[in-house]
């Protein structure tokens, strides 16, 4: 097997098909197929399940892929070494929830790119469980988690701040406390989101059964829908602070228990590149002002 075979494997997983991988790599499709055949012949078993026109990593393939990603990371690092090896460069892959990405990280990214223009930053908007998994497979270098404290033996986590959370309601919601949905839709973030689970617990505690539900992965969509009077939700207070101050949105501050924390995470076995080290330093500095 050769490095290029694993690069092809990575491209297929990232692009979702042999055809798209061949286009991204500028290979003939037959070359992509032969690279995967070389891997499968070496191990004596397939790495993909072929379901119609779709290819999906099987259980063994996921194991191979997780190790291949780490191998390719090391290979890319060696290839990108320069005489100024301590200067941040190369790619930096960061995962973050949308709210944190929009309302917290933009000053960090602005300063980082001013200081280190040679670093290519790839931002991914993932829910926290997926980010933890992506740190383990090497798909992400760093992750900004927004969830209650949770220990993981294989992750190094720096707590940055406790994020204030609120039940958010249209400005004309009739009560000071959440006693009913008052005919409004319940606006949920996507399944797996840590504070969706908290919100569901709050509704259950109030004896509110959500029947009219809208689910979306976009915090901005939820904010807009609350503003337009479509529904109510549960969000980081910072995402609706201006609307609260203007009276366009009402909110019920949540007494964080357990507290929702913004946390900076990385895999404990991952080498901290100069690009990662610089981002960690800047993020911790900025978090003091959040």
Automatic annotation (TrEMBL):
Record keywords: DNA-binding, Transcription, Transcription regulation
Q: Does the keyword Manganese apply?
A: no
Q: HTH lysR-type domain: from which residue to which, for each copy? A: 1-58
Question: Per its UniProt record, what SUPFAM superfamilies does this chain match?
Answer: Periplasmic binding protein-like II, Winged helix' DNA-binding domain
Q: Which PROSITE patterns match?
A: HTH_LYSR
Q: Which family does it belong to?
A: Belongs to the LysR transcriptional regulatory family.
> In its UniProt entry, what is this protein called?
LysR family transcriptional regulator
